[in-house]
Design brief:
572 residues; alpha/beta; Urease, subunit C, domain 1; TIM Barrel; nine-stranded mixed sheet; six-stranded parallel sheet; 17 helices; 25 strands
Length: 572
């Protein structure tokens, strides 16, 4: 009888610890790496020939919004296609528990703008067989999964549960009794397996106000008080458990940083700061962030930056576009039904307010936006042209040019905005810091605009193979072991004896990100933008093959990782 369920033969192992690569066999039994070395073929019930292939730990994605999608997509794609074997849900303080039955509709509406998740998909695809957060985790555990999931306790729903929607959104400070109830709920969630807590704290107005509620108002977490955050941090400290995630970019950098330093110090736990991003027109922003990170390390403060390391741009139409909410005039003009948007964007009286100041926070200058999908004979001549060039040709302002094209096409014109971080020099500066995590995939969010879930494949192909910014050993540490350490994934992120067998096996020379597509595969007859990968010969999750030759095997071996570890039973 074979000793192992699977033997991976003669692969080049890059184990995630930054030690030099080596060639060896791996024996897997009951989902665990049981042996590494020379193993005879007849010792494996199944033998995987990995000669000439890289064998590495599965990638870990710390910033996703698969809280709804996990119920209809076991692979949590795009992540599952790109070697992600574990992901964290509940980021930014957003989620669906605890939610009282009468508030379910409102909870789904909140996600339609801030994370651009289609309402029809949530409405049809979510079972809503829970009310409390522990019940939500039980539902996630019952649901078939092809990747592992680790849950934050998102504080937004908890604040609404305790304070009521109106008071929570008004920014009222919780009473002592309300803080006591939040403590009880948070402790209950940690007891059930939450890995910590998360919050988005962006300024309600100004250049960071790009992620708002469906009605254009701030999210609950945007107006929460520092004292509430400090309460949650102190609970983690008392328990010596978990970590925190905060999305902060208000512009008041010193106040934000002092606050995050206090939270990390109060808790003694890691805090993951989102997001460290390069803006090519103002490189001082990411350089200042890197200097602050270095200062935190020197002072022993456990703050890590999640770097936006992908160059995924935004493909969009004005039927759905909402990421210029930092400008009130654009926010108001892009709210409502398609008919209402069309009327507002065509209105000449609105154009002066849309021209100045021009939005560019997430896309760069409007002049650089490209018309990639004209939708009428009248706009077809502008295909693949930049708005700036068209504006010069027509003698119009670029904003009027873009909107006239969109209105002509009934808002169906597809535009592409390159990200403001295309400089490889700036990317190299971010990548050169060994404690910046890669990613910010936003998996499950902005489904009609963004395909950043490709980031692990892109990191290997671009940063390692094409540009030589770092070695494969360093890349796999950053993609697996470092995020595992920050998030408390027990034993994951590395290949070693006794570790769960979350493993990627890929063809280094032929690994690639495939072109973007539109997929009509969401519940509610909705569509999304996707990018698949080529070159992943095998992906194993908990010792079972979930991807083979880039195709799903429909093997659902993923687990809900309560507390960050492999303790997955109800008795954990």
């Amino acid at each position: 009888m074979p000793k192992f369920d699977i033997v991976i033969k003669q692969g080049t192992i890059i184990d995630g610890t930054r030690v030099p690569r080596y060639r060896a066999d791996i024996g897997i039994k009951d989902g665990i790496v049981s042996e590494i070395g020379l193993i005879a073929d007849d010792q494996g019930e199944r033998v995987i020939d990995a000669k000439g292939l890289v064998v590495a730990p599965g990638f870990i994605d710390l910033h996703t919004h698969y809280d709804a999608q996990l119920f209809w997509d076991p692979y949590c794609t795009l992540s599952g296609w790109h070697g992600i074997t574990s992901a964290v849900i509940g980021n930014c303080g957003f989620g669906f528990a605890p939610v009282k039955p009468e508030m379910r509709e409102r909870a789904m509406l909140s996600m339609t703008r801030v994370e651009a998740i289609p309402y029809a998909s949530m409405k049809e695809g979510m079972p809503w067989d829970w009310v409390t957060f522990p019940e939500f985790l039980d539902s996630v555990e019952r649901t078939p999964k092809a990747i592992n999931l680790l849950p934050y306790m998102p504080v937004g729903p908890m604040m609404i549960w305790v304070m009521g929607l109106d008071d929570a959104k008004a920014g009222r400070k919780p009473t002592p009794a309300e803080h006591a109830e939040m403590r009880r709920l948070f402790e209950e969630s940690l007891d059930a397996g939450a890995c910590g807590w998360s919050a988005q704290r962006l300024m309600p107005t100004g250049p960071s106000a790009v992620q708002l509620d469906y009605d254009g108002t701030p999210m609950v977490t945007d107006v929460m008080h520092d004292e509430t955050c400090e309460l949650f941090a102190s609970i983690l400290g008392e328990r010596n458990q978990g970590f925190m995630q905060m999305t902060i970019s208000s512009g008041d950098y010193q106040a934000d940083r002092t606050h995050m330093e206090k939270l990390s110090t109060l808790s003694g736990r890691p805090l993951l700061w989102n997001v460290l991003q390069a803006f090519d027109h103002k490189p001082q922003v990411h350089r200042d962030g890197l200097a602050w990170m270095a200062s935190c390390r020197e002072r022993g403060i456990r703050i890590y930056a999640q770097g936006l390391t992908t160059d995924a741009g935004f493909a969009f139409t004005f039927e759905d576009w909402n990421l210029w909410d930092d400008r009130p005039s654009w926010r108001e003009a892009t709210m409502g039904s398609i008919e209402e948007r069309l009327e507002k964007l065509a209105d000449p009286s609105r154009r002066p307010g849309l021209r100045q100041p021009r939005p560019m926070t997430v896309t760069g200058p409007i002049e650089n936006i490209v018309v990639t999908g004209p939708a009428s004979a009248e706009t077809e001549p502008y295909r693949d042209m930049m708005i700036g060039a068209i504006a010069e040709q027509l003698g119009k302002d670029p904003v009027d040019t873009m909107l006239d094209i969109a209105v002509q096409d009934g808002l169906k014109t597809e535009f592409f905005a390159a990200p403001p971080n295309v400089s490889t020099d700036n990317l190299r500066e971010i990548v050169s810091d060994p404690y910046v995590l890669f990613g910010v995939s936003d998996g499950g969010a902005h489904t009609k605009f963004l395909t950043a879930g490709r980031y692990p494949t892109e990191a290997i192909c671009k940063m390692v193979r094409e540009l030589g910014m770092l070695s494969l050993e360093e890349a796999h540490w950053r993609l697996s072991a470092l995020p595992a350490m920050v998030a408390g994934f027990d034993d994951r992120g590395v290949i070693k004896r006794g570790a769960p067998a979350d493993i990627v096996i890929y063809d280094y020379e032929n690994l690639e990100v495939l072109p973007a597509e539109i997929a009509h595969d969401l519940p509610g007859n909705e569509w999304r933008r996707i990018q698949r990968a080529r070159g992943y010969r095998y992906v194993l999750v908990n010792g079972q093959v979930t991807i083979e030759d880039d195709k799903q095997t429909e093997t659902h071996s993923g687990k809900l990782l309560r507390f960050g570890g492999a303790r997955i039973s109800a008795a954990a």
